[in-house]
Amino acid sequence: MNTEWVSSVVSRAQVHAALGEPARLAIVDRLILGDASPGELGRDLGLPSNLLAHHVKLLEQAGVIERSRSEGDHRRTYLRLKPAALTGLAPAGVRAAPRVVFVCTRNSARSQLAAALWKRHSRVPATSAGTDPAPRVHPRAVAVARAHGLSLPRTRTTHIDDVLRPRDLVVAVCDTAHEHLGTAAPDRLHWSVPDPVRADTDDAFDHALHELTDRVTRLAAAVPPSGDTR
């Protein structure tokens, strides 16, 4: 018997078993479109901390979710779906939004790349902004975008206060922006994407683009065009 096939079947069975409990499925549903801290999950789902910890542990063991440390305050932990763990299970048409705004701190890399990717996958309008914009888009972000057939402006960055509208769906693509926004953008998703500028290497920017591509593809399936571009 093919050992790789057996291993694949065992792994898939573990995922199905993990999702066979309503609370764990609810956790996965919450994480499909955006990351969350354990506290945020417990609050959203009404689960006590001890029960949440039990379900999270089983989902981790099944290879469905993983933890990451906040790049913002360095104390918070965020839970996220592992890339491709649930390929094809993104809910379709579950979020209504006339526009999507991708936000990071400097608006120089992740948010710019996410908006460019979004325009490739969805007809819903999108833009990007920062909570503390840099003077220009990072040159490595421009280069990695060009290498993948995307186009980024070289100098145009924007503060979120200058672009945000009441009905926008905000996607914070970094921990710091998510933590700084607070209640300023209540309809918000959070993607805990590591900052490629910190490493400042081509590999770091390629990795960020790859992760953003997976997440944008998932979210685009869940936000149908409404025809309302205001």
Automatic annotation (TrEMBL):
Tagged with keyword Cell cycle: no
Domain Phosphotyrosine protein phosphatase I stretches: 98-222
Gene3D superfamilies in the record: 3.40.50.2300, Winged helix-like DNA-binding domain superfamily/Winged helix DNA-binding domain
CDD domains per record: HTH_ARSR
Cross-referenced SMART domains: HTH_ARSR (SM00418), LMWPc (SM00226)
Domain HTH arsR-type as annotated: residue spans: 14-95
Matches recorded under SUPFAM superfamilies: Phosphotyrosine protein phosphatases I, Winged helix' DNA-binding domain
Keyword Signal assigned: no
Entry-linked Pfam families: HTH_20, LMWPc
InterPro entries: ArsR-like_HTH, HTH_ArsR_DNA-bd_dom, Ptyr_pPase, Ptyr_pPase_sf, WH-like_DNA-bd_sf, WH_DNA-bd_sf
Record key words, sorted: Arsenical resistance
Domain of life: Bacteria
Full protein name: Helix-turn-helix domain-containing protein
Biological source species: Amycolatopsis cynarae
